[in-house]
Structure formats: C-alpha cells, structure tokens
Amino acid sequence: MSFGNIIGGLLQKGLSGQSHDRLRAGVGKTEAGGGADNILTSLLGASGSGAGAGGTGGGSGGLMDLARNFLSTEQVGGMSGAKIGGLGALAGGLLGGGLGGAAKGGAMAVLGTVALKAWREHQAGAAPGDPNVSAEPDAEELKALTDPRTEKLVLQAMIGAAQVDGHVDEQELDAILGQMTEGEATPDEREAVREAVRRPVDLQEIGRGVSRPEAAIEVYLGALLAVDIDTEAERAYFRDLAAALRLDREVVVRLHRMTDAPLV
Q1: What gap in Å lies between CA 226 and CA 58, rounded to an integer?
Q2: Which of 7, 49, 158, 201 suits a disulfide with 226, CB 3.0-4.6 Å?
Q3: CB of 246 within 8 A of CB of 207?
Q4: How far, in Å, CA of 78 to CA of 47, rounded?
C-alpha cells in the first residue's frame, strides 16, 4: 500500500495555506547547493514515480517536462529561467496544482531530496545550499526514503499536525480524496487514511518506525509543511515529534529555516 499520491494531494490541496511557498523556499536552498536534480532522479528511479507521472519511466524526465510546461502558468511564471528543469520548477509543478494527479506521487521525492540535503549539510556543519556538500544518495538512503513504510509515517505525522491545527476532519478529507482518481488512491488506501484521521496519532509509534535519520527528517518535513505553526499546541506537537524522531536540535532549526517556518 502506497500513500505517496495521497501525501501529494494533501499538500497540494492545502492543509497549510503556506505549504507551497515554504516548500519552494526549502527547495531553492537545496537547489543552490547543486546536484539536486541528480538526487531527485535517483529517488524517482528508486520509487518508480517517474514512469507513473511522466510516462517515460526510470527517472525524472517526464516530471521535468511537466515542470517546464507548468512554468508558463501564472502560479509560477515568475520563476527565473535558471529554474527551468530544476528542482524549484518541479516542486512548483508538483504542489502548485497544475500538473494533475499523476504527478502528486513525486511529492515524496521532493521531500526526500530536501531531507537528504539537510542531513548531509548538518553532518558537514555547512550552511544551507553549500555547493561543497555532496548529497548523492547511497543504496540504504534510497531504500529508507522511498520505503512505503516511510510514506505511511510521513502521512501519520502530517495528520497529527493537522489534528492539532484543527484543520482536518473526515469531511474535509473526503473532499480532498474525492478529487483523486481510482488510479491515484485505491479504496484500501482511502480507508486507511480515514481510519488514521479518526484516532489520535501516536508519536512514539512514529519514532519507533523510523530506521534512519534521513527518513526521520523526511517525516518531520512532511508534517512541517502540513500546517502553519501559530499556536502553542502546534509548537508543542513539533517539539514532541522531534523528540520521538530523535532529531538533533540543530537539524530541526535547519529545517525550519529552510522552509521559513517559525521556530519551536
């Protein structure tokens, strides 16, 4: 069971009104370091999203073409020419509403790319976008970042954040799921998401399910983009989530600054 399309749909439809701009902020800082397209290609190739979204298979070519076309729309038409074919354009296309349902599955690849870059820069003690920091994923990182179990953890963390935020209930969720086709979300996947919304999210369970720090960062990042942090309850949720995921404080601060999210 894969939740990648549903995660993309939730981000696209806006559990957070600021999620698009904040993801673009993180993507821009990732792209500044170079090599982001290579990371994305590896992730899409590992997860198979390239074939589903662009019809070209085995990589990000189809998604990149869609992203280029999306640049002509008003939503991201102001992007510089340097962004064409880059990760910034792709993120705008995936989460801006202009590429259709098939591209939503690439949202996990975008999250994974930003997460991996943030982790490598943390390890090196480097500033965001440092071009000297390589972020090419190895086999174990690819496996962790594209694992369906990681998708489920990202979704759970997003739902938990939205529950605290008060912006998600079954009616709203049904409205989002109702806009997705059968190919984007199966009946079993839809019911699994509805069940997750009905019960409180167990952060300790999420923490136990994470096998590597890169995946932990990806989970936190998904939740961070799901809501606008403006209450103490939301700040407490992210402090507790970071603790459950065993994330270093510096990593948390880095993610918030990359995405222009308030510190907690």
Answers
A1: 29
A2: 158
A3: yes
A4: 31
Task: Report the first-to-last Cα separation within the chain, whole angstroms.
Answer: 33
pLDDT digits (tens, 9 = 90+) for 149-159: 999 999 999 98
Cα pseudo-dihedral 8, 12, 16, 18, rounded to 10: 120
Kindly list the distances between the CA atom of residue 33 and the CA atoms of 118, 166, 173, in Å, as whole numbers in the listed order: 11, 36, 36
Q: What is the pLDDT of residues 14-28, one digit of tens each?
A: 555 556 566 666 766
Both tokens of 52, joined, read: 């589903």
89: its two tokens: 């354009």
In the chain, the percentage of residues whose pLDDT exceeds 90 is: 25
